């Protein structure tokens, strides 16, 4: 398929915009040269890279993202991480959550650390590149999806002069408590879309009820169709397909469904 065409004025859920944002999230896994070459082919002539380390439980990790700008829009895409590594530091329950943006609710400590590592760089890039009232967008897959949602939250609650036009996340974990999730849903209703592919195991952690997902779910069922919701029975039937003893095992259905290429392929099939 030809290069995706991002719509800087898209509103509501749009199948083509979802596919394009998934491609942008996938691009975050490439190296700097690959990001810049691809972004240029998409009409984004300026790119800024973000990279910093942080210290979740068990190991030093890093946050990577890029911000690309065109004459009409700015997109920041956060890179994800391996499901098993994400499971390790999301499972830590000994560290208290951190305050959310403008002291709104609470954020899982690991996500707060990961975002704080690069958010000043992201904010500086958006402020620098937004020289003609471009719309601002966030996207990401896996850990990157959680960071995209939180970046939009920090922008809304602490930098209201730079509102996010849209947020698309793919296979993001739960990031925050109910207070921040509810405030976020009120503030960014119609602008955030959380896409989950069938049995994606990362979308199921960390556990409820302490941590919550934001709303606006788009669920890709076992047949590859994007739905606005899923029934309890349908959800159980989908989850029953391909399950293994360890849902984080490399061959598990939940890990296969989490792969960014699985999201891109499914969303391409749903294009009008």
From TrEMBL:
User: Single Gene Ontology BP term?
Assistant: lipid metabolic process
Q: Which Pfam families match?
A: Lipase_3 (PF01764)
The protein's superkingdom reads Bacteria
Q: Domain named Fungal lipase-type: which ranges?
A: 75-208
**Stored CDD domains:** Lipase_3 (cd00519)
Q: Record's Gene3D superfamilies?
A: alpha/beta hydrolase (3.40.50.1820)
Q: What is this protein called?
A: Lipase (Class 3)
Where does this protein come from, organism-wise? Saccharothrix texasensis
**Which classification does the entry list for the species?**
Bacteria, Bacillati, Actinomycetota, Actinomycetes, Pseudonocardiales
């Amino acid at each position: 398929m030809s290069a995706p065409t991002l719509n800087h004025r898209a509103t509501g859920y749009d199948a083509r915009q979802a596919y394009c944002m998934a491609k942008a999230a996938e691009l975050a896994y490439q190296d700097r040269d690959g990001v810049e070459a691809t972004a240029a082919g998409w009409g984004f002539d300026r790119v800024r890279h973000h990279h910093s380390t942080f210290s979740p439980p068990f190991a030093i990790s890093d946050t990577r993202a890029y911000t690309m700008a065109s004459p009409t829009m700015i997109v920041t895409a956060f890179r994800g991480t391996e499901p098993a590594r994400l499971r390790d530091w999301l499972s830590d329950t000994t560290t208290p959550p951190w305050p959310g943006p403008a002291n709104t609710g609470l954020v899982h400590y690991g996500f707060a650390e990961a975002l704080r590592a690069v958010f000043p760089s992201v904010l500086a890039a958006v402020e620098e590149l937004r020289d003609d009232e471009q719309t601002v967008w966030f996207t990401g897959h896996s850990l990157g999806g959680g960071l995209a949602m939180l970046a939009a939250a920090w922008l809304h609650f602490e930098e209201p002069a730079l509102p996010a036009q849209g947020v698309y996340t793919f296979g993001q974990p739960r990031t925050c408590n109910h207070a921040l999730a509810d405030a976020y849903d009120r503030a960014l209703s119609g602008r955030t879309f959380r896409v989950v592919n069938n049995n994606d195991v990362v979308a199921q952690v960390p556990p409820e009820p302490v941590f919550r997902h934001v709303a606006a779910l788009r669920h890709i069922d076992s047949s590859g169709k994007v739905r606005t919701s899923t029934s309890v029975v349908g959800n159980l039937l989908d989850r029953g397909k391909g399950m293994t003893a360890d849902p984080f095992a490399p061959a598990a259905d939940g890990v296969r469904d989490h792969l960014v290429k699985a999201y891109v392929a499914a969303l391409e099939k749903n294009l009008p």
